[in-house]
Write a structure and sequence with these properties.
This protein is of the alpha/beta class. It has two domains: about 200 residues, Vaccinia Virus protein VP39 (Rossmann fold, 3-Layer(aba) Sandwich); about 30 residues, no CATH class. Helix content is about 35%, strand content about 15%. A seven-stranded mixed β-sheet has the order 3-2-1-4-5-7-6, sandwiched between helices. Strand 1, helix 4 and strand 2 form a beta-alpha-beta unit. The radius of gyration is 23 Å and the shape is elongated. The two termini are about 35 Å apart.
């Protein structure tokens, strides 16, 4: 069945964007549904939003309209002219997202944030440094959003398909860390990321990390067996030992795993 977007309707953010006559906003058309999916639970609550990259200030006004009167919005930009865009509920801090001292000082001056949006310069170093310095300043149930990640495929931003050092290649490690509770390898253990992240979402040009405090999940069962296994426990144990041994060897050689058919 073909997706008919007209029947589903536009999000409140897209409606605001389409009728906007205030400050300039620059967004890709598919972003609004993504915002709605992840941001709607924060509406009309006393939250703090930090957006890196103020541009002309239009998106800050859009967040103010969308989240309501209780939101505190903090914008960061390298352009000192952006201070002129401050208004009620919106404050602007001037500095570079690659300046680690500036980011550390910023953290000391603002509360932990519910939503962090990196819509800054989009170079690989900017995206990685911002993540490394500010991710821990997002609340335990908050959201970290890196926007315009298609720059990882654009040469002038330092990108390129599977190029070492791009933010997309860097972020692929998030997938590993999300699964680290299940690792049986001594050199791959759970981390602070594993214990504080609920999910990682990849969209066209956007990576979103949703935080939640976690402990190692439990492997549970309920109900009764429908039939008896054809293997006894001793056979299962021997099979598991053999698979572990052969796959450990294959892993060292960086070869695909072996599955007993």
């Amino acid at each position: 069945m073909e997706f008919d977007r007209q029947k589903i309707g536009k999000s409140d953010l897209e409606k605001y964007f389409n009728s906007n006559e205030k400050r300039l906003i620059h967004k890709w058309s598919h972003y609004f549904d993504i915002y709605e999916r992840h941001f709607s639970r924060f509406r009309n609550k006393p939250i703090v939003i930090l957006e890196i990259g103020v541009f002309h200030g239009g998106s800050l006004q859009m967040w103010k309209d969308y989240f309501g009167k209780k939101v505190r919005i903090i914008g960061v930009d390298i352009n000192p002219n952006c201070t002129k865009l401050e208004e009620e509920q919106i404050e602007i801090h001037i500095g570079s997202q690659t300046d680690k001292n500036f980011l550390k000082d910023l953290k000391s001056r603002i509360p932990k944030v519910d939503i962090l949006i990196d819509d800054g310069g989009h170079t690989m170093s900017q995206q990685k440094i911002t993540y490394e310095l500010l991710f821990d300043h997002v609340k335990d149930d908050g959201i970290y959003l890196c926007e315009d990640t298609h720059s990882s495929y654009i040469l002038e931003y330092g990108g390129g398909l599977k190029r070492r050092g791009t933010f997309i290649e860097y972020s692929k490690n998030f997938i590993d860390q999300l699964h680290a509770f299940h690792s049986r390898q001594t050199n791959f253990n759970s981390s602070k990321f594993t214990e504080s992240v609920d999910s990682v979402h990849y969209y066209d040009s956007m990576v979103i990390i949703e935080k939640r405090q976690r402990v190692a999940p439990l492997d549970l069962k309920s109900g009764s067996e429908s039939y008896k296994s054809t293997y006894d426990q001793e056979t299962k144990s021997l099979k598991r030992t053999f698979l572990k041994l052969i796959n450990k060897t294959l892993q060292k050689l960086r070869l695909p795993g072996f599955i007993w058919k």
